[in-house]
Specification:
By secondary structure, this protein is mainly β. The chain has 1 helix and 24 strands. The protein folds into 4 domains: 35 residues, no CATH class; 63 residues, Complement Module, domain 1, CATH 2.10.70; 57 residues, Ribbon (Complement Module, domain 1), CATH 2.10.70; 77 residues, Complement Module, domain 1 (Ribbon). A 4-stranded antiparallel β-sheet has the order 21-20-23-24, with no helix packed on it. A hairpin with a 4-residue loop joins strand 23 and strand 24. The chain is elongated and about 120 Å long. Its main location: secreted.
Length: 255
C-alpha cells in the first residue's frame, strides 16, 4: 500500500509482493465518513501449471501422492530419472513469480570407459562390454597389500569413474638382529615371517637409555613400503645377539 495523504478524497494504492497477484481494485478512496472504499483487496500467490516430467523421467512431489490443489509460487518439486539414466541439471524445480517452472533437467544415457586397473590389485566384477551411469566396480589387493580408500568406484553422470583406491605395500624391516614389540608381544626378528609388516602396522624397536641404563621401546610405523628405524636403535653384532642377548635393550630393565 502506498500512502501520501489521508484526508477526504485522497486515494491509496495497493500492490503485492513478487510472486503474488492483486485481486480487486488497486486503490481505495477516503470517504466523507472517514472510511475507505472497496476494502476487499487480496494478494493471491501466482499459480503454475502441472509440471511436465523430463523425457524418461518422473516428477516427485513434496507431499505423498499427487497434489489436489494448484501449484503456487514457491512450491518445489523433485525430478527423477529411470534407472540407468543420469539426471543432467537440477534435481529440484520451483514455481517462479512469472507462473512458470524453472528449467527441467534431462535424463540421458551416460557411459564410462573400462574401469582403471589397480597396481598390485584386481577388480571383482563380471566383464562387461559397456558401463553405464550408476554401475559399480569393486577392487581388492593381492596378498600382503592393504586397500587404501573405498573398495567401490562408481560411473558418474560426467562419464568418469570415481577415484579408485590404492594398494599400499608392506614394509620389509631392514634389520636382521633385534627383538621387537609387534602385535602386542615381544618377538625375535626370526619369528617375524620375511621380516614383513603391513601398511599402517606399528612396531617398537628397543633403544638403551645410557643415563638411566634401561631399555626404552620406540614406536615406528609402516607407510606404503617405507618405515623409519628409530635413530637411537643400534643393531647388535651377531655375537651379542646370539650369545650376550641378555644385555640387549629389550632384555634389560625397562625405563
Amino acid at each position: 500500500m502506498h500512502v501520501t495523504d489521508l484526508t477526504f478524497g485522497k486515494q491509496v494504492y495497493y500492490s503485492c509482493n513478487a510472486g503474488y497477484i492483486l485481486r480487486g481494485l488497486n486503490h481505495s478512496t477516503c470517504l466523507h465518513d472517514g472510511t475507505w472504499s472497496d476494502q476487499h483487496q487480496l494478494c493471491e500467490p501466482v499459480q503454475c501449471p502441472f509440471p511436465s516430467p523430463p523425457e524418461n523421467g518422473t516428477v516427485r512431489f513434496q507431499t505423498t501422492g499427487q497434489p489436489t490443489t494448484a501449484f503456487v509460487f514457491g512450491d518445489m518439486i523433485y525430478y527423477e530419472c529411470k534407472q540407468g539414466l543420469a539426471l543432467i541439471g537440477n534435481e529440484t524445480g520451483f514455481c517462479l513469480t512469472n507462473g512458470k517452472w524453472t528449467n527441467a533437467p534431462q535424463c540421458k544415457e551416460v557411459k564410462c570407459g573400462m574401469p582403471p586397473k589397480l597396481v598390485n590389485g584386481f577388480m571383482v566384477f563380471t566383464l562387461k562390454r559397456r558401463y553405464n551411469y550408476g554401475d559399480n566396480i569393486d577392487y581388492g589387493c593381492v596378498e600382503n597389500y592393504i586397500l587404501d580408500g573405498s573398495k567401490t568406484i562408481t560411473c558418474e553422470k560426467t562419464g568418469i569413474w570415481t577415484e579408485k583406491p590404492k594398494c599400499r605395500a608392506p614394509c620389509i624391516l631392514p634389520v636382521k638382529r633385534a627383538r621387537i614389540f609387534y602385535n602386542g608381544r615381544k618377538i625375535w626378528m626370526n619369528e617375524l615371517p620375511h621380516r614383513r609388516i603391513l601398511h599402517t602396522e606399528r612396531v617398537s624397536f628397543y633403544c638403551k637409555d645410557m643415563e638411566r641404563n634401561c631399555g626404552l621401546p620406540v614406536l615406528t610405523q609402516c607407510i606404503d613400503s617405507k618405515i623409519e628405524i628409530p635413530a637411537c636403535f643400534q643393531e647388535p653384532s651377531s655375537f651379542t645377539y646370539n650369545i650376550m642377548f641378555r644385555s640387549l635393550p629389550s632384555e634389560i630393565k625397562q625405563c
